[in-house]
Design brief:
The chain is an alpha/beta fold and 316 residues long. The chain is built from 12 helices and 11 strands. The longest helix has 19 residues, at 2-20. Strand 2, helix 3 and strand 3 (71-73) form a beta-alpha-beta unit. Helix 4 packs across helix 8 (207-219).
């Protein structure tokens, strides 16, 4: 009887181990469905992929080019505004979908639709599953940069439309009003109980950390409101919550402030210091010489040759 019980327990542990070796990739995309399809294929099949496609774009443009049963497209979408709180809304929709599925993932890895792996996916997944409690997220204390980073949370930036309309005249007027409001440099009341932290929005966290983030927001709606008119909240919103929680102990965590630059806070990605460069095959030496696992900003327009080289010489 005991032997039967031990065997069943071992089988359950083996199943749990297999499930814990699985990664969930969470992708925010708004264009270039052909590159999106290549990215999903490159991520392989020992994973689940969750995708939020900007509400301004139809999902079927992406669904029609993807041959991957493990892709879950978010149906309840938001229209994402650059630098606005809607970025957080999109993240939360992805997080909620993952939690709802109740899979035992090792980590949730954030990607954009313009990312691409530059190391074998198996090596990336092994690295993560060998660190089951680690949060792959770096950040700096924004207070060390009062003239730049602190302004992002202490000032109101009005990135989201005051009036949502498809009418061009109304939309133009809305943008003009928000520009004037930004010029007024109105104060945003930041709760000083929270040290504001800043880093890259491309991070990887454990499911337990994800549940903490969602529970905190649900129980403390004031935190979302406090961040509503900050700028680029995807670069400080979750970092601040993690940095002020017990999960900071097992995160890559606090880094010394060495100057402005999102690329300094890269967790798993090559990020160019300009933040605007699109990578091409001409950057092959930088890509092959990097110890990162992904490159950010690759597109079909001028990056297809690079993707083909990565596929044949690295991922094959």
């Amino acid at each position: 009887m005991k032997l039967k019980y031990d065997l069943a327990a071992k089988q359950n542990l083996d199943r749990l181990k297999i499930m814990k070796n699985k990664i969930a990739y969470l992708i925010l995309a708004h264009g270039d469905p052909n590159h999106f399809a290549k990215l999903v294929t490159a991520l392989g099949h020992n994973c689940d992929v969750y995708a939020h496609i900007d509400e301004k774009v139809k999902n079927d443009q992406f669904e029609n080019v993807v041959n991957h049963k493990a892709v879950c497209f978010i149906r309840d979408k938001v229209s994402v505004c650059w630098g606005g709180i809607s970025m957080i809304d999109a993240y939360n929709l992805l997080f909620n979908q993952v939690i709802k599925k109740k899979e035992e993932y090792s980590h949730l890895v954030m990607l954009s639709g313009s990312c691409y792996p530059i190391k074998k996916i198996s090596s990336h997944q092994k690295m993560m599953t060998n660190s089951p409690d680690k949060e792959f997220i770096k950040y700096i204390d924004m207070r060390e940069s009062p003239d730049h980073y602190m302004k992002q949370v202490q000032q109101k930036w009005f990135r989201e439309p005051l009036i949502k309309s498809n009418n061009r005249i109304i939309s133009f007027a809305d943008k003009a009003i928000r520009k004037i409001l930004r010029m007024l440099k109105l104060k945003n009341n930041w709760d000083r109980r929270f040290v504001p932290y800043y880093g890259s929005c491309l991070f990887a966290i454990t499911p337990a950390c994800c549940e903490y983030l969602m529970n905190f927001q649900r129980e403390n709606p004031w935190y979302y409101e406090m961040n509503f008119n900050t700028t680029n909240p995807d670069e400080h919103y979750f970092h601040t919550l993690i940095g002020n929680s017990k999960y900071a102990e097992k995160a890559d965590g606090l880094n010394d402030f060495e100057g402005r630059g999102l690329w300094r806070m890269a967790n798993l990605h090559i990020i160019h210091p300009s933040l605007s460069k699109w990578y091409t095959v001409n950057d092959w030496q930088e890509i092959t010489g990097s110890d990162m696992y992904f490159v950010r900003k690759v597109r079909s327009q001028d990056g297809s040759e690079l993707v083909n080289e990565i596929d044949s010489k690295i991922l094959a």
